[in-house]
Amino acid sequence: MDLRRFIRQRWKELEGELLPLHARRDQLVEELRTIEHDISTIEPQLSEMRSAAEAIGMDLTYISEHSRAHGETTIKQGIRMVLNVHLDGLTSSDLHALVSRDFFDGNLDRTSFSPQLSRMRRDGEVDLGNTIWTLTDYGREVMHGRARGRLASDRKENEPSDDPASDGSDAGPINPPRGVFD
Q1: Which fold would CATH assign to domain 61-154?
Q2: Cβ neighbours for 161, distance < 8 A, ≥ 6 positions apart
């Protein structure tokens, strides 16, 4: 084969390989520009939300931490995250109010919350001392996916309400005033 013919043939082959690579690079650069634009639009909005939350005294620690790792929050995850921030613990009523407000738009029924809290106590994730609920070390391990024994991913989140939780509710009996539900 003569050298001129070899150069012509190899030149065409190399150009044929290079052109799609240039096109792909240009496509990726454009995609990166779009992503950078989206980030520059979202970050100021997030900053405004942070300022608004701080103005009303809302702690975003557990919401931000959880949203990076998960999608929708379960009752048990909400309990873990709230108690992880409130190291001195909370009463059942305060805990319910915070979990409901911060994760369920204020719509968490006590009848759904109490059985989950009782199950978490039974499983050793939370402790009740003198009407104050606290997160145990084991509860923190579950929260971070490092639970001893079975994997945290194998644990049931929000077991069905017909699954027995405990001998009774931590809220006591529910006796609505007469006429409320008549």
Answers
A1: Arc Repressor Mutant, subunit A (1.10.10)
A2: 111, 112, 115
